[in-house]
Amino acid sequence: MKSSKRIILAVMAFAALTQAAFSMGSKDSSKPKLKGVQVSKEGQIYPKGTSYITLNLSGENSFTFSATSDPAANGTPVKATSANPSVAQVTQSSSNPSQFTIKALKQGGTYVEVKCDYYKFIFSITVNDTSAAGIAQAKSDQQRKDAELLEIQRRAEANSRASQQSQSATSSSSASQSASQGASQGASQGASQSAGQRAGSQSASSQTSSSQTASSQSSSSQPAGSQSPSNDGWGDIWDFIFGPQGPSVEINKSGMTVETRIGVPEGYERVSVKAGSYEDFYRKLPLKPDGSPVYYYNGKLKSQSFHIAVYDFPQLSEDILQCADACMKMRAEYYYARGEYSKIGFDSEGGVYMPFSKYVDGYRLTGSGWKAGYAKGATREIFDQYLRIVYSYASTRSMAKEIKPISISDLRIGDVFVQSGNPGHAVFVTDMAVNKKTGKKIMLLGQGYMPAQDLHVIESFESISPWFFVEDKEFSYAEYIFPKGCQGRWVER
C-alpha cells in the first residue's frame, strides 16, 4: 500500500505544480503534443520589470527559450536540465549557448530548471497526447474519476446518516435510563421502610452499573463526523486519490486563530506554552473567515486545496512566496513583532547571509551585493521589501542548511519539516496537542506551496484530521510525502 500511496501522491503533487499556460494545435494527431509550460520564477532576483528569459512556440512538439546571464553573475554560463528527460528533453544550442529547446517525447510530466550561478527559474511541463486515441483515453479517465467522486459523495452521505442515527440512539438510551431510574425510585418510596431500604440499595447499585456502562460506551465512541472508514479497502484508496474528506474534530467557525477555531480530538489537550512565546505566536496567527478558499498569487482559485484554514496575510502579486518562504516569513514575523530585528536573517542559496538589520541601517541587497544610501528604519514597508528579497534568494536548499535536526520526541510548535531538492518542500508546525492518558502527541501543519498561494493549515489523512500523529516515520498528505527524519529547528544566530 505504501508504494501505491507514493505513486498516487506523486501524481497529485505533479498536478498541483502543472497548469497549461499555452495551448497549441497539431498537424499530426498520432504524436503527443507539448500542451503547456508554466513559469514559476522560483528564485527570481532580477529588478522588477526585467527578465532574462523568453519563451517562444516552435514546432509541433517543442518550445524554444533563450536565457542569458544576469550582468551580476559575471558571465556565468546558463544551464538547463529536465527532471524527467524521458518525458521532455532539454538541449542547448552548440552555436548559441543562450538558446535552448524543450522537446516532448512522451505523455507525462516533468519540470525544467534553468540556472545561472544561484539565479534560477523553474518550468513545469505537461505533455498530453492529443491524438484521437489520446482524447478518447482522457475522456474515459474523466468518466472514471467522475464515477469515483460520486461514490465518495455517496459514502460521505451514508456516514453522515449513520452518525445522526448513532447520536439519536444514544439520546434515546439516555432518556430511557432516566425514566427507568425515576420509576424505580417511585416504587421504592411506596413500599415498607425495610423493603424500601433494600429496594433503594438495589436501585443505587443498578444505577451505578448503568452509569458505568454508559460511561464506557461514551468513552469508546467516536465524536460526530469521525467515523472509521469502511474496511473494504476502497475507502483508503479514495482517500489517497482525492485527499481528506473533512475535519474529524470540532470546528469553531467564529474562531479567528488556530487555537480558537480548530478543536482537539477526544482525549487530547493542547500542549502548554508560555503566553507571548514563539510557540504561542504560531497558535495565535490570524485566520481568514471559516470556509475561505485558497487563491494563487495571480488571483486564480486553487480548485483542489486540502486545507482546513487560511492564514490572513496579504497575498503578493509575484510568484515568490512559496513553501520555504512561508516558514521564513513566520519566523521573521515573530521577531519583527517583538522588535528583535537582529534575530531576523536568512542565508541565500549562494551562502550570503541576509540580515534584516542591514535594511534597517539603509542597505539593500542587489545583484552586485550590498549597497548603501537607501531609506533607514524598520517600517512595515522596509520589512516587506526585505522579505521579498529573502523569498527570491532563499529556497528549501538554503533553508535546510539553517535547520538543525532534532529528535521527533523533542518536536515543538514553530519547528519545521524540510526536504531539500528540486522541488523540495517545507512545512511548519503551527500547533500541538497531547493525549492526556498515553502522552502521544499530535500536530497541525501550515504551508505555502507552488505556485505561490495563500498560506494555509493543511488537512491530514489521519482519523484525527486535520491533526497529524507525531511519529518517527515517513508521513504524507495530499500534496507531499516527507521521508523519516525531516524535522528540525531553526539555528539561533
Please name the defining characteristics of this protein.
single chain; 493 residues; alpha+beta; nine-stranded antiparallel beta sheet; four-stranded antiparallel beta sheet; 10 helices; globular; disordered N terminus
Describe, in plain words, how this protein is organized in 3D.
There is one protein chain. With 493 residues, this protein is α+β, with helices and mostly antiparallel strands. It folds into three domains: 2-130, no CATH class; 143-242; 258-490, no CATH class. It contains ten helices and 23 strands. Strands 9, 10, 15, 16, 17, 18, 19, 20 and 23 form a nine-stranded antiparallel beta sheet that branches. Strands 1-8-7-4 form a four-stranded antiparallel beta sheet, with no helix packed on it. Strands 2-3-6-5 form a four-stranded antiparallel beta sheet, with no helix packed on it. It is globular.
Question: Which helices and strands appear, and what pairs or packs with what?
Answer:
Elements: H1 2-17, E1 33-39, E2 53-57, E3 62-67, E4 79-82, E5 88-92, E6 99-104, E7 108-116, E8 119-128, H2 132-190, H3 193-220, H4 234-242, H5 258-261, E9 268-270, H6 278-283, E10 307-310, H7 323-337, E11 345-347, E12 353-355, H8 356-360, E13 364-366, E14 369-371, H9 380-393, H10 396-401, E15 403-405, E16 416-419, E17 425-435, E18 441-447, E19 456-458, E20 468-469, E21 475-477, E22 480-482, E23 487-490
Antiparallel strand pairs: 1-8, 2-3, 3-6, 4-7, 5-6, 7-8, 9-17, 10-19, 11-12, 13-14, 15-23, 16-17, 16-23, 17-18, 18-19, 18-20, 21-22
Helix pairs in contact: 2-3, 7-9
